[in-house]
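[09:14] KT: can someone run the structure on this one? pasting the chain below
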Amino acid sequence: MMYQPKGVCSRLINVEVENQVITSVEFVGGCNGNTKGIASLVEGMDVHEAIRRLEGITCGHKATSCPDQLSKALRQAIGE
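[09:31] RB: done, structure tokens below
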């Protein structure tokens, strides 16, 4: 599933969830090392646990962040 984030440097988040487990995450744009790190950490994780950990994280003065936007993408992927 493709998700277009809002308010961050990343332009697109590609995410796959199977049986409530995150199987793949790819960020297009953004801070390359950080987004690769986030993707690596959440792959294989229960989707609800990842949402709980990432939701609400901010970036500097922004009200959102790439991890927060990933939580929104995950919610969309599971139909929430």
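[09:33] KT: thanks! Residues 66-77 form the longest helix (12 residues).
[09:34] RB: yep, looked fine to me
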